[in-house]
Amino acid sequence: MGLAEKGLSFIDYLTARAGYRNEWIVVREADTSSDYGVLPYERSIRDHISYGVLNLDKPPGPTSHEIVAWVKRMFSVRRAGHGGTLEPSLGVGRPQGDRCPASWLREQY
């Protein structure tokens, strides 16, 4: 099975798992090279650690800066950061660091 077939079978797998029932629209087909990138299920643990995303629920107490420093030390990586507030959650379901008005939460698109 070539790289293109592996990629398409992975997309089919994700489509089935997500329950997507519409037909895909292919604008242009092109060959690809295995010299660039790796299919997600063929990545090594080292690649997942180096290039992945860690979803972390920060406990109360340590600062966001401390948590990032711990993650960098634990995984032996030089670069790490956070993409938003890491404040502990309140019992009502909104994080303490969430400053958006409650009216925003009712908006639906």
**Shape, please?**
elongated
Number of helices: 4
N-C termini distance = 41 Å
Main structural class: mainly alpha
Helix proportion: 25-40%
Biggest sheet character: none
Oligomer: single chain
Topology as a string of helices (H) and strands (E):
HHHH
Q: Strand share of the residues?
A: under 5%
Poorly predicted segments = none
- Structural Rg: 20 Å
Count the E strands: 0
Describe the model:
The chain is built from four helices and no strands. With 109 residues, the chain is an all-alpha fold.
Note the main attributes of this structure.
4 helices, mainly alpha, single chain, elongated, 109 residues
In short:
By secondary structure, this protein is mainly α.
List the helices and strands and how they pair.
Layout lengths: L2 H16 L26 H7 L12 H12 L26 H5 L3
